[in-house]
């Protein structure tokens, strides 16, 4: 938002719907990786966990339609394994641990607010389901 737009807002020359449109345009300008990082931050996942980067990258892959949730294990784990030079089991374990931390550190209300009802599986969703839920949220916000 530039200075002239701000002065129009302050002088009531702009309507609420126009303001809403301006905000939506600003949100669209935010890169996908930053939106995903913001979501993980809001879910209180520390960047210190190895699973953080695996979750971030797998969510981006699903949003960009590089993979789908049905072929998650066949596509995402091998792609991450190649990118980071670690074995598939390590990636799967670290993602599972990161998801466990998310569910330990958040209340059901916070998870519901950020991800919606599908994320309230008992006790927690699988890696593929969690990433699919996050990717669906990111797609809806585009």
Write a concise synopsis of the structure shown:
With 142 residues, the chain is mainly alpha-helical. It has helices at residues 3-10, 16-28, 32-42, 50-63, 72-84, 88-105, 108-115, 127-140.
Pattern of helices and strands:
HHHHHHHH
Flag low-confidence runs. none
The CATH architecture category of the largest domain equals Orthogonal Bundle
Radius of gyration: 18 Å
The fraction of residues assigned to DSSP E strands is under 5%
CATH homologous superfamily annotation of the largest domain: Winged helix-like DNA-binding domain superfamily/Winged helix DNA-binding domain
Shape: globular
Tally of structural domains: 2
Main beta-sheet annotation: none
Number of strands: 0
Mean pLDDT: 86
Secondary-structure-based class equals mainly alpha
Instruction: Note the gap between the termini.
Output: 19 Å
The CATH C-level class name of the largest domain: Mainly Alpha
Helix content: 55-70%
Looking at the structure, the CATH topology of the largest domain is Arc Repressor Mutant, subunit A
How many helical stretches? Answer: 8
What keywords describe this structure?
single chain, 142 residues, mainly alpha, Arc Repressor Mutant, subunit A, 2 domains, globular
Structural notes for this entry:
The protein is mainly alpha-helical and 142 residues long. It has two domains: 1-30, no CATH class; 31-140, Winged helix-like DNA-binding domain superfamily/Winged helix DNA-binding domain (Arc Repressor Mutant, subunit A, Orthogonal Bundle), CATH 1.10.10. The chain is 70% helix and 0% strand. The chain has eight helices and no strands. α3 (32-42) packs across α4, α4 crosses α8 (127-140) and α5 (72-84) packs across α6. It is globular and about 60 Å long. The chain starts with a helix and ends with a helix.
């Amino acid at each position: 938002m530039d200075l002239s737009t701000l002065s129009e807002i302050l002088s009531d020359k702009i309507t609420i719907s126009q303001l809403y449109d301006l905000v939506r345009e600003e949100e669209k300008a935010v890169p996908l990786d930053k939106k995903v990082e913001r979501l993980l931050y809001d879910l209180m996942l520390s960047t210190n966990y190895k699973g953080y980067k695996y979750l971030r990258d797998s969510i981006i892959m699903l949003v960009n339609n590089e993979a789908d949730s049905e072929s998650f294990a066949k596509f995402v784990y091998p792609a991450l394994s190649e990118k980071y030079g670690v074995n598939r089991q390590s990636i799967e374990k670290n993602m599972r641990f990161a998801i466990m931390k998310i569910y330990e550190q958040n209340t059901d209300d916070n998870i519901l607010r950020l991800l919606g009802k599908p994320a309230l599986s008992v006790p927690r969703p699988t890696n593929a389901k969690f990433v699919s839920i996050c990717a669906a949220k990111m797609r809806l916000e585009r």
